[in-house]
Design brief:
Radius of gyration: 20 Å
CATH class of the largest domain: Alpha Beta
Mean pLDDT: 90
Structural class: alpha/beta
Number of helices: 14
Low-confidence stretches: 339-345
Strand order of the largest sheet: 3-4-6-7-8-9-10-11
CATH architecture of the largest domain: Alpha-Beta Barrel
CATH topology of the largest domain: TIM Barrel
Largest sheet: 8 strands, parallel, barrel
Strand content: 5-15%
Number of domains: 2
Order of helices and strands: EEEHEEHHEHEHHEHEHEHEHHHHH
Oligomer: single chain
Shape: globular
Length: 345
């Protein structure tokens, strides 16, 4: 069973990827309930933490029920990264993760995220600065390389391990690919099967069904899988993958009652944590997948994304429950959605 420092994980753990504006405490709560084994904060700017920026500090929030839990930071300055790791340590997470994978221009242009892939020596220095500044295990999330000509993940993995990184999560695309095309897991497999590598290697990219999870587990030998976009509005994917790996059977699709129950739970937690205005607004991105497959749902969904109170939203949920009371969902692969160039790492 894989270990990250002192953290013991179950056999073949499923990780919830850190996603900007998605992986907040309300979303993490419904994913944890449905089987996510290790979760992370949204990625946090090291400079923002040092400036005490309200949004950055708020991303440090997590509950005991979420453990094991990691806080993910990004930045391009060694001193800032070290200081932000020490700030993270004050809230006592289980680990600190470094983001070397976000491809978004505003992050890359600051020499952070996937921008560091162009300078492996800088990646090493930034990582060392974090490791030396905290007693917590340090892990790294990255990509195959900057572009097709610089897929240097095998070298990166060895150098990260050599300086003390405790686990590595690899997204199977280059920075230049963003989220286009298919993720290439071939190099992830090579990293895992490198006899020099002994830290856990987690694969990430395009896992959208229990069948694919099992196929990639067997083909590439990775220690676990990180799931991002496929969990948006469909937290059951963790439970479904685990059941398929253990029994070879596909679970029945979540019923309408189960979907609406999770919608209500997610909404309540979102409102409790963010307040009614922001909490309701930020829930709207999840409804499409929660209710995907219902014929004629567009009219109800349009109302859901225009209402401004929890009571009104729950009344629409009641209407949906009555209108579709006899509808039976079929098991299906989850369609991985694009959520506007955020960072589903």
């Amino acid at each position: 069973m894989p270990k990250i420092g002192h953290i013991s994980l179950p056999e073949f753990p499923l990780l919830l990827a850190p996603m900007e504006d998605v992986s907040d405490p309300p979303f993490r709560a419904v994913c944890k309930t449905n089987g996510a084994d290790l979760m992370y904060s949204e990625f946090i700017s090291s400079e923002g933490l040092i400036r005490d920026a309200m949004k950055s500090k708020r991303k440090l929030d997590f509950s005991e029920e979420e453990r094991p839990f990691g806080i993910q930071i990004f930045g391009g300055d060694e001193e800032a990264m070290a200081m932000s790791a020490r700030i993270c340590e004050t809230v006592n997470p289980d680990l600190v993760d470094i983001n070397f994978g976000c491809p978004v221009k505003k992050v890359v242009s600051k020499g952070a995220g996937a921008g560091v892939l162009k300078d492996i020596s800088l990646m090493v220095r930034l990582t060392e600065s974090v490791i030396k500044s905290t007693k917590l295990p340090v892990t790294v999330k990255t990509r195959l390389g900057w572009d097709d000509a610089t897929k240097n993940i095998e070298e990166v993995a060895e150098r990260m391990q050599d300086i003390g990184v405790q686990a590595l999560s690899i997204h199977g695309r280059t920075r230049c690919q963003l989220y286009k095309g298919q993720a290439d897991w071939t190099l992830i497999g090579k990293v895992k099967n490198n006899p020099r590598i002994h830290i856990p290697i987690f694969g990430n990219g395009d896992i959208d069904s229990p069948q694919k999870a099992k196929e990639y587990k067997n083909r590439y030998g990775i220690d676990g899988i990180m799931i991002g976009r496929a969990a948006i509005g469909y937290p059951w994917i963790f439970k479904e993958i685990k059941n398929y790996l253990h029994t070879g059977e596909i679970l029945p699709a979540p019923t309408l009652t189960e979907r609406l129950e999770v919608c209500r739970t997610h909404l309540k937690k979102s409102v409790d944590w963010k307040g009614p205005i922001v909490g309701i607004n930020e829930m709207r991105r999840h409804y499409t997948n929660y209710l995907k497959g219902l014929p004629g749902i567009k009219e109800f969904r349009h109302r859901l994304v225009t209402l401004n109170s929890p009571e009104e939203v729950n009344e629409v949920f009641d209407e949906i429950a009555h209108h579709y009371r006899d509808y039976i969902f079929e098991p299906q692969s989850i369609e991985i959605i694009d959520y506007h160039q955020k960072c589903p790492l």
